[in-house]
Amino acid sequence: MIKYSRLKIGGDVMANIYLDYAATSRKHFDIIEKNLNILKEIYANPSSGHTLGKKNAKLARESREKIANFINATSEEIIFTSGGTESNNTVFNHVLSRFNSGEVIISSIEHPSVKSSAKHLEKYGFKIHELDVDETGSINIDELEEKINDNTVLISIMLANNETGVLNPIKEISELIVDKDILLHSDIVQAFGKVEIDVKELGLDFASVSAHKIGSLNNFGFLYAKNGDVEPFILGGGQENGLRSGTSDLLGTLILADCTEETLSSIPKLRELKNYFISKLEQSGIEFEVNGSVKNSLPNILNIYFKNIEAQRLITYLDAQSIYISGGSACSSGNIKGSRIITEMYNIERAAHSVRISVGFDITKDDIDEVITKIDKLEKRLIERN
Fold first, then answer.
1. 362 occurs within a structural domain
2. Which residues contact 255 (CB under 8 A, 6 or more apart)?
3. pLDDT for the residue numbered 128
4. Assuming Cys at both sites, which of 104, 131, 303, 367 could form a disulfide with 291, CB separation 3.0 to 4.6 Å?
């Protein structure tokens, strides 16, 4: 486990406190280096028939099994992709390939790759329903039940929201449709590695994962497809049992397996840091409220409304001191507007005063103390000016 060093700019030593793990995790360079060393002498294409290829295929097979076990899936149900966006698109392509028409249910707080894919289906005559969320950040299961009918072919609801960390009732959704011919997909990108996930217990047909959220490599991830039943989205050499073509990424597979194990083991620490952040805010006297549910959420994400501080002012102020937070999702390139999710949950004014803080493996309680001291200082300065 590495600890990122502080930044030295000129003669000043800056904080270098990274609290934007929900956008992307800092890398587990120790794990990356370990696996690079493994491949230095034996690397080859796992699809090759020679001895080196077979050795690489064995490594890939073992890591695939390890990853599958983390979510109670089989190796045949894990399809490696370039990440969550491709995995989400693959599911909607599957629907387009298998059904001539139908209705699809998503939530208003889905990742853009889900919302855009759903919008694309409308061009082919599919009807899309968007569920609202309440102030806890979760969908209303009764509203969902009202939308389900004989024409429903897919329900796609994220397990954990990427801005608030709030968990949706996926198991309850699957119980609603257990006797219906409806596919259930969940974007589990934020939740993977942060909570225990059992795709069988959740009743999922599909689940999407990105590796970079847990300190692994960018442009890698996987799609869980129940029984390996999914229409190929990318065609070519027939890798991934013909379900996703492209040269196998052995390094990505090895690193993802190890990073998942590491992240799962850190869940208690992440929860402790999150609770510590809230308790220290309460002790400071800073006027704040947590957006969404604290209890029913991931252990590493906090979305906080600061009554007296605009989000962009706080982000800029902390950034100047090498402390990094965000105003919401980084999935829309360069977006610094008030969070769409918080606007959906509350209103645009609250969104303009809300920031996302997400902890990770290199954060300490001392880091949190330093951040809260600086927020307190800024709030006092703004109140004095007014």
1. yes
2. 28, 31, 32, 35, 211, 216, 217
3. 98
4. 303
- Model confidence over 200-217: pLDDT tens digits? 999 999 999 999 999 999
- CB of 139 closer than 8 Å to CB of 164: no
Structure tokens at 362: 């290199």
Residue that is last in its domain, among 245, 264, 283 = 264
Same domain, 259 and 338: no
**What's the CA gap between 126 and 49, in Å, rounded?**
45
Task: Tell me how many degrees the CA angle 177-203-359 measures, rounded to the nearest 5.
Answer: 125
CA atoms within 13 A on the CB side of 170: 27
Instruction: Please state the domain count of the chain.
Output: 2
212 contacts: CB under 8 Å, gap ≥ 6:
24, 25, 83, 218, 219, 220, 221
For the chain, which residues score pLDDT lower than 50?
Answer: 333-334
For 87, 133, 185, 203, 245, the CA distances from 222, given in Å and listed in that order, are 7, 27, 13, 18, 13
Written as six digits, the tokens of 268 are 């208690």
Q: With contact defined as beta carbons under 8 Å apart, do 89 and 113 qualify?
A: yes
Of the three residues 264, 287, 317, the one that is the final residue of a domain is 264
Cα separation, 201 vs 179, in Å, equals 16
Q: Is residue 166 part of a domain?
A: yes
Cα(336)–Cα(303) distance, integer angstroms: 15
Give the pair of three-digit tokens for residue 155.
């329900």
Tokens found for residue 302:
């906090």
CA distances from 270 to 21, 55, 362 (A): 11, 36, 10
| Domain carrying residue 248 | 29-264
Q: Is the pTM of this model over 0.90?
A: yes
Q: Long-range contacts of range 41-48, CB-CB < 8 Å, 24 or more positions apart?
A: 43/250, 45/247, 45/248, 46/248, 46/250, 47/237, 47/239, 47/247, 47/248
Determine the Cα–Cα distance for residues 260 and 211; give it in Å rounded to an integer: 9
Residue 24 lies in a domain: no
- List, by residue number, the catalytic residues: 331
DSSP class of residue 218 equals S
